[in-house]
Design a protein that fits this description.
With 595 residues, the chain is an alpha/beta fold. The protein has 3 domains: 7-175, no CATH class; 186-324, Alpha-Beta Plaits, CATH 3.30.70; 346-576, Alpha-Beta Barrel (TIM Barrel). 57% of the residues lie in helices and 14% in strands. The protein contains 24 helices and 14 strands. The strands form 2 sheets. Strands 6-7-9-10-11-12-13-14 form an 8-stranded mixed beta barrel, surrounded by 5 helices. A 5-stranded mixed sheet has the order 2-3-1-4-5, sandwiched between helices. β2 and β3 (258-264) form a beta hairpin. α4 (78-96) packs antiparallel against α5 (100-108), α4 (78-96) runs antiparallel to α6 and α16 packs parallel to α18. It is elongated, with a radius of gyration of 35 Å. Pfam families: EAL, GGDEF. InterPro entries: Cyclic-di-GMP_PDE-like, EAL_dom, EAL_sf, GGDEF_dom, Nucleotide_cyclase, Rev_trsase/Diguanyl_cyclase. The chain crosses the membrane at residues 21-43, 49-70, 77-97, 127-145, 151-169.
């Protein structure tokens, strides 16, 4: 399939509005200049040509200003009116000019229309506009008595400008096209995607990702040539059906056997019906993931949800459509808005970590809480995964790190050796610059590196990339403490404990819960404690809720613990008060001392 390359694929509505607006302004200004020239050479009074050109120039400039402001929202068809109107205004200006030189200057503006026609429209429409402008040019110049050779020269200039513009448009279009199917390629799609989701666009928008289920079988059984022809046939059907059904839709080949549909002004229900209707026309089974954009949702989050829905459709057997969870999208959108506009919706609480022998407070774990103005308190079990999926975990993590370190400085004024532990996701660890961000926060808050502990889960450690491990090693080298959180939920980290840059091991609550009822679990913990002692690792038991658990942990030799038995997460003010109350009263020197 090969469509004629044209600016419908290259010139976006916004680009068309900018080009048309500025050319109208330039053409109007030129008409005014010609009119003023006639006025200056007039022997007596104000010439009629000046008044005509003044009216034409002001009309063109006013139109240009309007197009610049609002033209990006207009339908593409309206630009036929603007381009045709440009030809009419230039014809009138050419007829109105009071001198031969003014006539030629006004006629030269026809080149602006030639640019627009070749840039905006497919060849048939562009040719129609070109014929209109050339007719206006010939009629106007012939009427003014311009020699035929001069008319021919300007005629050829307009043709050359139109031809060169068409070639450039064709080249630009080729760069944004998939060579096999003729559809927009991934680059063009992402540009259209960015335009459709720019800012806080309130228009409904649904993204669909289609994956052909049996293309590999076609390639293996009938050869790659048959597979290519099938892709072209699918592309033709998708483009024809979808663009006819949804104005402004973009159908693109995303790579391999994947196609993406950008469906503006379409809700998830309508998109689902459209995709299901395509199954009978496409001629090959496909899986589809759909995601309707929530207000303010980022492009990356929307695409991730659509791809996740596609994975669910293929996992479920293929040949089906799955819709992404819209509730999760709305939550992610609220999260985005809160982080950008009202970060005070988030606050940090701290859960104490205590010495199991003395009960003394050793450290606190910083935990994020979110109170939404209309949702009320949102569970971390909901918003933390939403932040991960929406790509917001780094922003949320930075906010928590900053506030936790500031709180730690306040608490260390009472207990200088207290440590604050902050949870860090795998995505944060692999971000370029995360190490520098941590050091910057420590510098700004005044917290010593030894007063911060970075907690990473066992699953993150198990799947760590060299970048993540290198980050942990650099933090460890700078005396920032590192803890492996939720230990006991996996299996692989046992063999790596001696190689990990860690100071602490935090036992998962589920592991801790079984030590009073399972002798084998208690035996495993005893062996783990001995191993950690040999490696120089401190062990913290999480989720301690009963006295029996605390007693058993003490008997086994576990040094520290955390859980509701000791304290629930609390505001920093409560922790500060607790530290003040636990601090020994200053000794009062007796007057009798020394007697």
């Amino acid at each position: 399939m090969k469509w004629s390359r044209s600016a419908p694929e290259v010139a976006t509505p916004r680009m068309m509005a900018l080009t048309t607006g500025w050319l109208y302004l330039a053409g109007g200004l030129t008409a005014l200049v010609v009119g003023v020239s006639d006025l200056l050479v007039a022997a007596d009074g104000v010439p009629l040509s000046f008044l005509h050109l003044l009216a034409i120039g002001l009309t063109a400039m006013g139109t240009g200003a309007i197009v610049l402001v609002w033209g990006g929202r207009w339908p593409r068809a309206f630009f036929h009116v603007l381009v045709g109107g440009g030809s009419v205004l230039i014809t009138l200006a050419t007829l109105a000019a009071g001198s031969a030189s003014g006539t030629m200057v006004a006629a030269a503006i026809f080149t602006f229309v030639a640019i627009d026609a070749a840039f905006y429209f497919a060849p048939p429409a562009a040719l129609a506009h070109l014929l209109l402008l050339l007719t206006g040019l010939v009629v106007a110049l012939s009427t003014r008595g311009v020699p035929a050779l001069d008319i021919l020269g300007l005629f050829l200039v307009c043709l050359a400008v139109c031809a060169v513009t068409a070639v450039l448009v064709d080249r630009a279009s080729s760069a944004d096209r998939d060579t096999l199917t003729g559809l927009p390629n991934r680059r063009r799609f992402e540009e259209a995607f960015a335009t459709a989701t720019r800012g806080r666009n309130r228009h409904e928008l649904t993204l669909a990702v289609l994956d052909l289920d049996d293309l590999a079988a076609v390639n293996d059984g009938r050869g790659p040539g048959e597979g290519d022809e099938l892709l072209r046939a699918v592309a033709r059907t998708l483009h024809r059906t979808v663009t006819d059904a949804v104005p402004g839709a973009v159908v693109a080949r995303y790579g391999g056997d994947e196609f993406v549909l950008l469906l503006p002004g379409t809700c998830g229900d309508v998109a689902t019906r459209l995709v299901d209707g395509l199954r009978a026309e496409v001629g090959i089974a496909f899986s589809c993931g759909l995601a309707q954009r929530a207000h303010g949702e980022s492009r990356s989050a929307l695409l991730r949800r659509a791809l996740a829905a596609l994975t669910a459709a293929k996992t479920g057997g293929g040949g089906r459509t799955e819709r992404a969870d819209d509730a999760t999208a709305l939550l992610a959108a609220d999260l985005t808005s809160a982080l950008a506009e009202d970060p005070d919706q988030f606050h940090v609480v701290h859960q104490p970590i205590v010495d199991l022998t003395t009960g003394d407070l050793l450290a606190v774990e910083a935990l994020c809480r979110w109170t939404h103005p209309t949702r009320g308190p949102v569970s971390p079990a909901e918003f933390i995964p939403a932040a991960e999926n929406a790509g917001l975990i780094a922003e949320l993590g930075a906010l928590v790190l900053e506030r936790a370190c500031a709180d730690a400085v306040r608490l260390r004024a009472v207990q200088p050796d207290l440590v604050v532990a902050v949870n860090v996701s795998g995505r944060q660890l692999v971000r370029p610059g995360f190490y520098a961000e941590v050091l910057d926060v420590l510098h700004r808050t005044g917290l010593p590196a030894s007063g911060l502990c970075i907690e990473v889960t066992e699953s993150v450690v198990d799947g760590s990339t060299p970048t993540a491990l290198r980050t942990l090693e650099m933090l460890h080298a700078d005396r920032v403490q590192v803890a492996i959180d939720d230990f006991g939920t996996g299996y692989s980290a046992f063999s790596r404990l001696d190689a990990l840059p860690a100071h602490h091991l935090k036992l998962d609550a589920a592991f801790t819960a079984g030590i009073t009822t399972s002798g084998r679990r208690a035996g495993i913990l005893r062996g783990l404690l001995d191993m950690c002692a040999a490696l120089g690792l401190s062990v913290v038991a999480e989720g301690v809720e009963t006295c029996e658990q605390a007693t058993k942990l003490r008997e086994l030799g576990c040094p520290s613990a955390q859980g509701f038995l000791f304290a629930r997460p609390q505001p920093v003010s409560e922790i500060h008060r607790r530290l003040l109350e636990a601090r020994p009263a200053p000794a009062v020197q007796s007057a009798a001392v020394g007697r």
